[in-house]
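Contributing new records

If you add data, match the layout below exactly. Sequence lines come first and carry their own label; structure lines follow with theirs. Keep one chain per record. Anything else will be rejected by the validation script.
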Amino acid sequence: MSESSFSTNSLALAQIAGYVVAIVFGLCALVPTILHLIDFQGHCLLFTNGTWQPSDGQLDADWGSQFFCDFNIFWAILSIIIAFSQLIIFIRNARSNADKSFLQALVDVAVCTVLCILVLAGAVLTSLGYKTWCDAIMQRFGECEDAASPTADIDRKDGIDTSDFYVHYGIIQFGAWLCWATWVALCLCALCRAVSLHQDYIIRVSMARERARLVGDRAHKFRPHRNEGRIGYHRALDLVPREEMVKLLCVETAQ
């Protein structure tokens, strides 16, 4: 196996592993968010403030916008769907021994960049919103996790169950930040793949020109008549191995 083939295969394996990890971390953010909304009767604790009533010790909650929890569900589902789709495409191409085009690689870079931005926004909103909730909780409790006790009945009016929120948001933050790191890595891999495909195309075009010049057939290959010549040109590019191109370019340069 040549060095270029080994690096290409290693990059493809890294992308496949990255998409699997992105699915796992997306589920880490999605499932606890849904469970949290069920426990809190549809209320989202992110950016929630409140005051403690001195008469009964209950929290008079000023609930944050539902948008923050809905946004977490949105980016988590989108991340899972895109990662799963890309995983299927990579496995199908591997079975058929095919490869993506340069345009498809550019689309991968754009998609990964959008996911990076969305997941980062979700992770930041989750961390900041959870801190706001904990600040309100610690007006009465020493630690935020103390309100997650099964005996801590802090809001009977809204009927919320706070026994699991600490675990839920620990998992959500863990999944969100690691999912963002995974998409950053996938974006870099996709960019490297696009650069590699572009370099391959440039080398193939250069070698096709050199071979045409050497055999005195440049006009026939680079000025095709109608459709037949253009099809033959592109087939000629596909038949030239990359290693042979590099060797012939070096010979021509030395001459």
